[in-house]
């Protein structure tokens, strides 16, 4: 819900929001996206391959971490952050990181 609320701000900053889930199928994610009126895409990650590539597998508890990844326009990872406690802060942190990225890239 937090990303839905801030999606317009992120888009205005030049970002594209994409949700990725290792647990649901594309059909289930599409139903969820429609039900929640999410303005961004949700992609399945069967087996957690994308999550694994970003190092988001929990070492001791198993499963995958809730995380946000900000990727720079050239494809380089700008920031990865996760929190099992403050996950509602992810959207606000993403806006701040996208803004800092744009500021650092201005000539």
Topology order in helix (H) and strand (E) letters: HEHEHEEH
Report low-confidence residues grouped into runs of 5 or more: none
- Helix count, per DSSP? 4
Strand order of the largest sheet: 1-2
Strands, count: 4
What structural category do the secondary elements indicate?
alpha+beta
Please state roughly what percent of the residues sit in beta strands, choosing from under 5%, 5-15%, 15-25%, 25-35%, 35-45% or over 45%: 15-25%
Helical coverage, percent range? 40-55%
Brief synopsis:
The chain is an alpha+beta fold and 107 residues long.
What do these coordinates show?
The chain is α+β, with helices and mostly antiparallel strands and 107 residues long. Helices cover 40% and strands 18% of the residues. Strands 1-2 form a two-stranded parallel ribbon. Strands 3-4 form a two-stranded antiparallel ribbon. Helix 1 (2-12) runs parallel beside helix 4 (90-105). The longest helix has 16 residues, at 90-105.
């Amino acid at each position: 819900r937090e990303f839905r609320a801030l999606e317009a701000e992120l888009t205005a900053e030049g970002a594209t929001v994409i949700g990725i889930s290792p647990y649901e199928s594309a059909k289930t994610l599409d139903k969820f996206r429609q039900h929640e009126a999410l303005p961004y895409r949700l992609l399945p990650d069967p087996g957690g391959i994308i999550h694994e590539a970003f190092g988001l597998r929990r070492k001791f508890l198993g499963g995958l971490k809730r995380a946000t990844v900000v990727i720079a326009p050239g494809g380089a990872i700008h920031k990865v952050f996760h929190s099992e406690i403050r996950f509602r802060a992810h959207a606000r942190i993403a806006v701040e990181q996208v803004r800092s990225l744009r500021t650092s890239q201005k000539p």
